[in-house]
TrEMBL record:
One of its GO terms (cellular component) is nuclear telomere cap complex. Its main location: nucleus. The keyword Nucleus applies. This is Protection of telomeres protein 1. Residues 373-384 have a biased composition (Basic and acidic residues).
Length: 618
C-alpha cells in the first residue's frame, strides 16, 4: 500500500473497530459515507444522526463486515452532521458496540467529527500542498473538532479517489434510492414470496431449507420457495460449473466462495435461493433443529444487499424479547403455504425433466448444450414475468466458450477465486435497470462493481508509447482547477515536472457464447495507480528517459505480443495474435458538465471501465 493509502497514526480500520465492539476503548476511524438517515430524537434527550460508512478493509473478499453503522448524538439537531453519500467523514474518539447484530460506532462527550464533501475534495494531482500543511477544508464539523492534519488530509484524498471501489452501488438520485430507513409493514401484510421482496424491508418467509452453514456463532440458512428474483445469486448446473472450472472459474460469486461451499450445489438452479444470516438465539436453534429438506417459517427477516450487490436476509435478536425464536419448523406439510411451495417445487422439477428429456433425443454431442439452453431460457422467461428489470434483458447465454489456449501465465490477476464474467454481461448488466416506488422503470448510468474477465489486447491509445505518461501541468490532461494560491505557487516552485501514467487498452472478450460470435470489446482506462501495479514502473518523461521507455516496451510485449510492432508498421492488427490474459475490471461513473442534463440523472455521468490489481510478472 502506498503512503497515501496508509492509515494515519492513531486510526484503525473497520475490521479492527469491530473487534473493539463491547469494550470501553475509544478509537479514531474514517470512511466513505454509503447511506444516511435523517436526524431524529433518541430515546433520551438528544437528537441523533445515523449513517453507514465503508473503508478499504471492509471491501476485501474475506472481510467479516462490509460496512459500519455510525450514530452521532447532540442536544441540538442543527449541530448534527448531514453528509451525503460519497462524502468522507473523520470520527475521533468514538466507541463501538453491537446493535441489532451489527457493529455500531457511537459518539460520546469527547468525540469529534468532520465531514468532507466529495465534490470539494481535491484530486491527487493537487495533494502535495496538503501534505505540506495546507488545511483541507471541511464542510461540516463538531464545534470542538480540530482541522485534519497532513496525514489525515492525505488519507481523505486517498479514500475519495478510491470511493468507486469502496462502494458497490451507484449513487442514484434521492428519488430512486432504496429506502434508508427499513420499512416495517404490518404483521398481516408482512408475508412475502422471495420473488417480491425489496431491499431494506422486513418480511415473514416460508420456504424449503436447501442448506445450512454455521459460521462463528452465526448460521447461514439457504432457503427457497421456488420463485425467482433477479437480484439473487445464480447457482449454475453441474454442466455449467464444469465448463467454468475448465477455464479457471468455479461457478461461484464473490459472496459464495468455494471455501464456504465444500460440496457441489445440488439445486435448485438459477436465481431461486435466498441466504438468510441467522444471529443468536436463532442460529443455535437452527443448528440443532433444522436440516436440509425441512420447511420453515421465518419471522421478521430484513432484506438487504450483500457487498456484491446480491439480495440476502438477516434475522437478528429481538431486542424486546431477546430469547424469542423467530424460526418455526413445520411438522405438518399440509399447511397451506407449505403446500404452495410444494406445488411450485413440483412444477419446477417437471419442467426440468421435460427439458432434459427433450435434449436427450438429439445427437449426443448436442444434448448438454440443448439441455443447458432450455434451462437457461426457461429461467430467463420466469424472471421476465416476475420483474420489470428483465423486460429489456439481453439474450440469455446458451454456452460459454473460451480460447483453447491457456491464458498468459505472465500476467497475474488478483482475486483468482472470483468467477470470470464475459464482457457482454458487464456491458449489458441487468442491474443497470431498476424501478421507482411507483413501478416506473429507470436505468442507472453506471454500477460501482468489480469483475474478473479473460481478455486480449487488440489496440491501445495513445498510439505512441512515449505518450503513455503525461505531466500534471499539462492542462489538456489535468484540467482540475485550483485557486491562485499555495497550490499554484508550489507547482511553479518545483524544479521537476511530475508525471503520471494514463492510457487506454482496447480489449476483446476471450469468453464467448459461440465460435461465430463477434467478440465483445471494451475500452479500459489504466490510470496511474493501476499502471504502477501493472508495470511495476514509475512514470517519467518517456521522450527523454529512453531506459524507462525500453522497460515499458518489454513489459507490454509480455501483455500484448507483437501488437505494437505491427501497429507501428501500419500492418493490419485485426485479428489479434496475442494470448488472452485474466484481469480485474472495475466499473464506475465520472460526472460530466452538461447543462442540458439538469433533469436527466443518467446524462450527468459517463460510464467508465478501468483495469485494477493486475500485474505483469517478469
Amino acid at each position: 500500500m502506498s503512503a497515501r493509502g496508509k492509515l494515519p497514526d492513531g486510526y484503525i480500520d473497520i475490521e479492527k473497530a469491530v473487534e473493539l465492539c463491547g469494550s470501553s476503548t475509544a478509537a479514531n476511524i474514517t470512511g466513505v459515507v454509503t447511506d444516511t438517515l435523517e436526524p431524529k430524537m433518541s430515546k433520551g434527550t438528544d437528537h441523533m444522526s445515523t449513517l453507514k460508512i465503508q473503508d478499504m478493509s471492509s471491501i476485501q473478499p474475506n472481510a467479516k463486515h462490509s460496512w459500519l453503522r455510525v450514530r452521532i448524538f447532540n442536544r441540538y439537531v442543527e449541530k448534527l452532521p448531514r453528509p451525503s453519500v460519497g462524502d468522507v467523514i473523520l470520527l475521533r474518539n468514538f466507541k463501538f458496540t453491537f446493535w441489532a447484530g451489527d457493529p455500531l460506532a457511537y459518539s460520546s462527550n469527547w468525540s469529534q467529527w468532520l465531514v468532507y464533501a466529495a465534490a470539494k475534495i481535491p484530486s491527487t494531482g493537487f495533494q502535495e500542498p496538503f501534505a505540506l500543511g495546507r488545511e483541507l477544508p471541511s464542510t461540516n464539523k463538531s464545534s470542538d473538532a480540530r482541522a485534519a492534519n497532513p496525514a489525515e488530509a492525505m488519507y481523505i484524498i486517498y479514500l475519495h479517489e478510491n470511493a468507486p471501489v469502496v462502494s458497490n452501488l451507484p449513487i442514484p438520485p434521492r428519488s430512486i434510492q432504496a429506502q434508508s430507513n427499513p420499512h416495517v409493514v404490518s404483521a398481516r401484510d408482512r408475508f412475502s414470496l422471495i420473488s417480491d421482496v425489496e431491499i431494506d424491508r422486513f418480511y415473514d418467509l416460508v420456504g424449503e431449507v436447501v442448506k445450512t452453514y454455521p459460521d462463528r456463532g452465526t448460521l447461514d440458512l439457504y432457503i427457497t420457495d421456488y420463485t425467482s428474483n433477479s437480484l439473487l445469486y445464480e447457482y449454475v448446473t453441474p454442466e455449467e460449473e464444469e465448463e467454468l472450472d475448465s477455464y479457471g472459474g468455479n461457478g461461484d460469486s464473490w459472496r459464495h466462495s468455494t471455501t464456504n461451499r465444500p460440496h457441489k450445489w445440488e439445486g435448485p438452479y438459477g436465481k431461486l435461493t435466498l441466504v438468510v444470516r441467522l444471529w443468536q438465539p436463532h442460529a443455535e436453534f437452527a443448528d440443532e433443529k433444522v436440516r436440509p429438506g425441512d420447511f420453515v417459517f421465518l419471522r421478521n427477516v430484513r432484506i438487504k444487499l450483500s457487498n456484491m450487490g446480491k439480495l440476502e436476509g438477516q434475522l437478528n435478536q429481538d431486542k424486546q424479547y431477546p430469547n424469542k425464536i423467530d424460526i418455526k419448523r413445520f411438522n405438518d406439510q399440509r399447511e397451506e403455504r407449505v403446500q404452495d411451495v410444494l406445488t411450485r417445487k413440483e412444477k419446477y422439477f417437471d419442467h426440468i425433466k421435460k427439458l432434459e428429456s427433450k435434449a436427450s433425443k438429439g445427437p449426443r454431442k448436442q444434448r448438454k448444450k440443448k439441455a443447458k439452453k432450455g434451462i437457461e431460457q426457461a429461467r430467463n422467461r420466469e424472471e421476465s414475468e416476475q420483474t420489470a428489470n428483465a423486460l429489456n434483458a439481453p439474450e440469455p447465454i446458451d454456452t460459454v466458450m473460451v480460447d483453447s489456449h491457456r491464458p498468459n501465465q505472465h500476467v497475474e490477476c488478483a482475486h483468482k477465486d472470483i468467477r470470470l464474467t464475459p464482457l457482454s454481461n458487464i456491458l449489458n448488466s441487468l442491474q443497470l435497470r431498476g424501478k421507482l416506488d411507483d413501478g416506473t422503470a429507470v436505468e442507472f448510468p453506471f454500477l460501482n462493481l468489480r469483475y474478473r474477465a479473460r481478455v486480449r489486447v487488440v489496440d491501445f491509445y495513445p498510439s505512441k508509447l512515449e505518450d503513455f505518461a503525461l505531466p500534471l501541468d499539462d492542462k489538456s490532461y489535468n484540467n482540475q482547477e485550483s485557486d491562485q494560491s499555495e497550490s499554484e505557487v508550489w507547482h511553479n516552485s518545483s524544479p521537476h515536472k511530475r508525471w503520471e501514467w494514463a492510457f487506454y487498452l482496447l480489449v476483446e472478450d476471450a469468453v464467448r457464447t459461440s465460435p461465430k460470435e463477434t467478440p465483445t470489446r471494451m475500452k479500459l482506462l489504466v490510470n496511474n495507480d493501476s499502471a504502477q501495479y501493472l508495470l511495476k514502473l514509475d512514470a517519467t518523461d518517456l521522450r527523454q528517459d529512453k531506459q524507462r521507455l525500453k522497460q515499458l516496451e518489454e513489459k507490454l510485449f509480455i501483455l500484448w505480443g507483437d501488437l505494437q510492432e505491427r501497429k507501428s508498421k501500419g500492418e493490419d492488427i485485426s485479428p489479434a495474435h496475442n494470448n488472452a490474459f485474466e484481469c480485474c475490471i472495475r466499473e464506475y461513473g465520472v460526472p460530466v458538465q452538461n447543462p442540458r442534463a439538469k433533469d436527466n440523472f443518467s446524462a450527468r455521468w459517463t460510464r467508465m471501465h478501468g483495469m485494477f490489481e493486475t500485474t505483469i510478472r517478469g
